[in-house]
# Entry
Amino acid sequence: MEKIAIVTDSTCDLPDELVQKHGIRVLPLRILYKDGEYRDNVEITADEVYSRLKEEIPTTSLPYPADVDELFAQLKEEGYSHVLAIHLSAGLSGTSQLIENAARQVKGMAVQVVDSKSISMGLGFTVLEAAKAVQQKMDFESLGNHVQSVIQKMRVYFVLDTLEYLKKGGRIGKISGTLGQIMNVKPIITINDEGVYTTHS
# Structure
């Protein structure tokens, strides 16, 4: 009988109560400052990051490889036979590739890595749908197909109060960011089919 685990990363922005309720495993990305680095939502909270933005804009990095290996080992020890790992867009991060590389080293447990082509609650909603399907006893093959169907139907849109941080982080072009600031325009931003930020027209 299949025992399926759902794995994601901390950019999913799911509330802790939903993570715990549905047994979702969350790998923390790293938040990097000049004076050190922190595991996202483990050693530093979103509120703490926001409060420090005027002092320093941090960068992010992949989960620690040791955290990934430890999670796979723990899941195997707990008797899981299958893992569906759903992560933020490969167009924005190398997290999916890191997980795929680690999965190749796993023996005795089937691991499928899915690029959500999304971020934040776009990713979170997909993960939640997968977890609910597991609780409804959906088999692993059908689960993978179900998640791909959800991703294809998913569209994420958001508006930011300022483009400053996307511009400084290199997530949008400097010209687009500067024009937006000068004109005080708040464009609707989405993620395209390649999984990267773009403005919605």
About this structure: The chain is about 40% helix and 20% strand.
